Amino acid sequence: MELNVLTIEGKETGRKVTLPEAVFGIEPSDHAIYLDVKQYLANNRQGTHKAKERAEIVGSTRKIKKQKGTGTARAGSIKSPLFKGGGRVFGPRPRNYTFKLNKKLKQLARKSALAYKAQNQSIVVLEDFNFEAPKTKQFAAFCKDLNLTGTRSLVVLNQANDNVYLSARNVERAEVITLSELNTYDIMKAKSLVLVESSVEELGKLFNA
């Protein structure tokens, strides 16, 4: 699959790049994408939720009323979950939500996500660019020229660039990451995938294509 290389003004440079068929041309695996996204979201959970159960509540342990003759249910402790201020029944406890996935499955998931973007013609290839200083206005103009304003877009750089990253930080629905940070969740979440020219070749190396 060949794509035209554009400038940051949205104009054609006259050059074309070929997307690696072994990455962008595969039959996508929905199940691999599901598992990888599930792991990504699970790994981001803190798992620090905690509620006190009746054994952890501070309060008197005396019997609050006599056993019989009150006409109501028997009650042995003010810490009972039935009373206000009592412990919670089977409350949440701190836990680790992370789980393991094989590297080959995660690789298949990312390739599948990229293949979906290629099928939907949602990939834009730009020549390598840089901003002289962090300028939100400059990145907003960049999005406007590429018709990305208001759409969720993911810009993938070959190497970290603080000026580009900081320029995009306050632009709604835009995200800038490096090739090493590329993940299935971000790819699937974005409506448009913007690759710089140098990152296309590196993608093939990353997936051994």
Structure characterization notes:
The chain is of the alpha/beta class. The protein folds into 2 domains: 154 residues, 3-Layer(aba) Sandwich (Ribosomal Protein L4, Chain: A); 47 residues, no CATH class. It is built from 7 helices and 6 strands; from the N terminus they run E-E-H-H-H-E-H-E-H-E-H-E-H. Helix 5 links the parallel strand 4 and strand 5. The mean pLDDT is 91.
Give a short summary of the structure.
With 209 residues, this protein is α/β, with parallel strands linked by helices.
Give the tally of structural domains.
Answer: 2
Oligomeric state of shown chains: single chain
Predict the CATH topology of the largest domain. Ribosomal Protein L4, Chain: A
Please write the string of helix (H) and strand (E) elements.
EEHHHEHEHEHEH
Number of DSSP E strands? 6
What fraction, in percent, of the residue positions are helical?
Answer: 25-40%
Sheet/helix structural class? alpha/beta
Mean pLDDT: 91
**Ranges with pLDDT <50 over ≥5 residues?**
none
Q: Tell me the name of the CATH homologous superfamily of the largest domain.
A: Ribosomal protein L4/L1
SSE blueprint:
Elements: E1 2-6, E2 12-18, H1 21-24, H2 30-43, H3 103-119, E3 123-126, H4 136-145, E4 153-157, H5 162-168, E5 174-178, H6 184-189, E6 192-196, H7 197-206
Parallel strand pairs: 1-3, 3-6, 4-5, 4-6
Antiparallel strand pairs: 1-2
